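ESCALATION

Customer reports they have been waiting on this structure for their group meeting. Please prioritize. Original submission:
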Amino acid sequence: MFAEIGHFALILALLTAIAQGLLPMLGAVRGDTALMAFGRTAAQWQAVLIGIAFIALMACFARADFSVALVAEHAALSQPLPYRLAATWGNHEGSMVLWVLILALFGAGIGRFGGNLRPSLQARVLSVQAMIGVAFLAFSLFTSNPFARLSPAPADGAELNPLLQDPGLVFHPPLLYLGYVGFSVTFSFAVAALLEGRADAAWARWMRPWVLAAWIPLTCGIALGSFWAYYELGWGGWWFWDPVENASLMPWLLGTALLHSAIVTEKRQALAGWTILLAILAFSLSLIGTFLVRSGILTSVHAFAVDPARGVFILAMIIGSTGTALALFAWRAPLLKSGALFSGVSREAGLTLNNLFLMAVTAVVFLGTFYPVIMEAVSTDKISVGPPYYNLVFVPLSVPLLLLVTVGPLLAWKRDSVATVAAKLKWPALLVTGVFAALLLALGFGKALAAFGFALGFWLILGGIMVLARRWQGASGLSLRLVRTTPAAVIGMALAHAGLGVTLCGVTAMSGFAESKILVMRPGDTVQLGAMAVTLNGAGEMQGPNYQAVQARFSVTQAGLLGGSTRDLTSERRFYPVSRNQTTEAGIGTGLLGNSYIAIGDSQNGGIVVRLYHHPLVGWIWFGALMMAMGGAASLADRRFRIGAPTRLPARLLVGLVPAE
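Update from on-call: job pushed to the front of the queue and completed.
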């Protein structure tokens, strides 16, 4: 019953999306307010209908209805209820329902909270958003029906991939989808602006909150995925340059560029065409990420499906949406006025240079991700692109980008001078140089790159502090009035930039100072790794709700300046009988200055294979990412996004169109 309700709701949602894609656009062309208003109503109903379908699918998993093929393939009676519910989106078909639900919710948000939008612009945005929804709803219904029945129904089903039976993976996919799908809104705004012939400061201000609404969860999703890989896979790393990891990183990089470009368009009405192009490309890269995990061209723990037919469908969507948008951009954007002029030394110029470097590092990741795929398609050669390539190309391009992060906010809009900028940066630069010299002496010249990495991280943290310090500086020192009146967006920018510095310090420490040892240990054995002494106290078997495990118990003594500390850690090797899979549960002792990390393997010679790691500052990587997300949330809370932007000197296309008001 639930399956039929959900299937029927999806069909009604598709019909609603078709109407929403056509009628508001027609209303915008004709200036018909009734048809334009229909888009808002249709967007709400589409979200309700897809919500019903998603709840129905979740009910099928909760009830373990094995007559539904999807439930039989990804749920088992022995599976804990939370993971049975998470299996709703832990597979290809169910994840597509979540995808279209988020897409519809964003559309409903535009209809509900877009009251200060021009009616014609809102109608066009909702129409484009609905057209995207039509494509994905058709994809779900015709190639990936989540409600297909199975007859006869089995008494029990298979289970969700054990690697995904983890709290981190309950939240990781929804966060990524919020980011990926969120960029559909910026795409819709870009296409609507091209169709309407208007991309001014008001348009940029209306779009910027939606950029943040996508960027924040994508940041959290990437960080959570990295953290999950760290503690769940037992390999002791935080980033592998896996193609699917890269697929989430690329839209994040372009989304960051889009966020900064939109600021220039809003503040100075410049770079409007560039902002539109970034909005198109950011969503296109999100679609490419969807293609990678569902086309079957990659074998990865992240991959959902291996059906080439589905990949062809998604590839057609990418070509259709991106190709149409780029063709429209090529036709209309050259006629767009360039907006206000600015000098080569100005905040506009700094943000433009920032964008160029972000585009360059995105291109590096794109090439590293797809070059092996292309080579395998045109020849029989199989190659891999790993850390050496990214260390050689990505890292050098990132250095000037990170230097600019601190310099940009100190520049004046429109025009500045080298002498003024040098005066602002004199003391911060001297301080950072001193930090670098001290680290070089303390660590040795063999660790010069690590010293530089720490100094660069400090430069970014200092840059965030300087933004607020300069903002709060009054005539006689710290001004409480200026503190109280500081816009939330300024606080958010400072927090995000400082968070980037914290993450960089963690990455530098992990890259330069991580220690590891792999050996066979027996109960009572003690091993020294750096300042860490590890003792295997014992090992034994245990039974979980749907798995069997070998559990090893360790005592870890960590030497320190204030005396040693001892903690108990456990590590498990789990076996899931239903799926016949094994997983590793690492024992991790967390601390401000680093983690102790223990993972066990198979039994050998009367002992257990143990992998020991010491990871200095590894937690800073994810804490810095959290700071960046919090900075984005603070910016999103800025009240200026809830009021209209000035419409002086609108940047209109020089064609015979008069935008409807």
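Sent to customer with the following note: The mean pLDDT is 89.
Escalation resolved.
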